[in-house]
Amino acid sequence: MFNAKFNYDINKIEGIYQIKIDIPWAVKFVSLYLFELDELNILIDSGLNIGTWQKKLFSALKDINFTIQDIDYCIITHMHTDHIGNCLNLKQKNPELKLLMHDITHELLKWETNDENLKELKQEAREIANQLKKYGISEEQGNRIVQFFTYWPRFLQYQYPDIIVHDGDTVLDRLEIIWTPGHSFGHICVFDKKEKYLFSGDHILSRITPHIGNFVVPEYLAEEYKGYDFDNILKHYLASLDKIDKLNPKIIFPAHQEIIFNPHERILQIKEHHKNRLAEISSVIKDNPLTAYRISQIHFGEDLDEMNSYMALSEVLGHLLYLEAQEKVKTIEKNGKLLYYC
Ligand SMILES: [Zn+2]
User: Fold this and answer.
1) N or C: which end of the chain has fewer CB within 10 A?
2) How far is the CA of 30 from the centre of ligand 1 (A)?
3) Are residues 251 and 306 part of one domain?
């Protein structure tokens, strides 16, 4: 069911409503999922809080004879604004709605939306920018990265969740919470154990591999998750893929792009993609020391806009740090820049 006025689309697959609403960035739309479980209505993700987006969601709900008051639970997959941005509004419209998110997502939301932490947030972003300068970006690019990390939280609003979940928790008797760090530190997938359906958020998408990059994390949280290797995010991401593969899901409902009816095959494709990228990067730096930034330019081209060149750099970096942890690449420092080679 396509609504031309508001540019959203609603489909029903195996009793699950997919509500696709357009968003103003490259992935084009975000899908929220709505389904009934033991007479309770569950919504996966809240969508974003920009412009008329909320109106579109309410209009879409109306088209399928729902109102926001009918929603009993809203489960947030991760911290990004197209998934969590609307949660305060939903709670305000329906205080009975139970909001559920992972512990890390909650801590990050609380931290990033508190103005008192702006200084620390800037400092953490500055540290990341300084590190990225060593990887080859310019002073100005570094400044813009600090701006980027301090700009996005403006689209977030704090809402205390009714339920805070951890890896392996089961809610409503059959929805298992799978912590899948990689795309975002607190990212979760929701697995319906009975139907073997997986709501994958941005962890597994049908056509692209999700961005894997740096997380800005406050010190207290980094301390709490000390065992987590923040330098090797690709390792966590790949381990998170294996975690999902073991569950043997029947259908994957992702937050962007198409529904995935061949989960195992898609997981293999994504793993293959990373394997190939690891090999490609290795061949570029064979006896040819280069900065991560230069490698990203060779790999993805030099005419990318600011946002995409940053994404390209963090993608390459994710792979380099993965190779470094396995001692498959070496580094030398030259004029304050870190060069990778093998
Ligand atoms: Zn997303």
Assistant:
1) N
2) 7
3) no
State pTM to two decimals. 0.93
- CA of residue 241 to ligand 1 center, whole Å: 17
Residue 253 · residue 199 · CB < 8 Å = yes
pLDDT, tens digit (0-9, with 9 covering 90-100), for 100-109: 999 999 999 9
Burial of 67 (0-12, 13-18, 19+ CB in 10 A): exposed
Q: Are residues 249 and 236 in the same domain?
A: yes
Q: How far is the CA of 152 from the centre of ligand 1 (A)?
A: 13
Q: pLDDT of 174-226, one tens digit each?
A: 999 999 999 999 999 999 999 999 999 999 999 999 888 767 788 888 888 88
List CB contacts of 270: < 8 A, sequence separation 6 or more. Answer: 204, 209, 241
- Give the pLDDT band of residue 38 (cuts 50, 70, 90): very high
Same domain? For 125 and 96 the reply is no
| Residue 226: CA count within 13 A, CB half-sphere | 3
Domain count, the chain: 2
d(CA 32, CA 27): 14
47 C-alpha vs ligand 1 centroid, how far in Å?
Answer: 9
- CA of 257 from ligand 1 middle (Å) equals 10
Residue 235 carries which DSSP code?
Answer: H
Ligand 1 centroid distance, CA of 86 (Å): 13
Specify whether 82 is located in the same domain as 126: no
Question: Measured in angstroms, how far is the CA atom of residue 67 from the centroid of ligand 1?
Answer: 24
Do the Cβ atoms of 83 and 155 come closer than 8 Å? no
Q: Does one domain contain both 318 and 335?
A: yes
Q: Tell me the sheet residues that pair with 192.
A: 175, 197
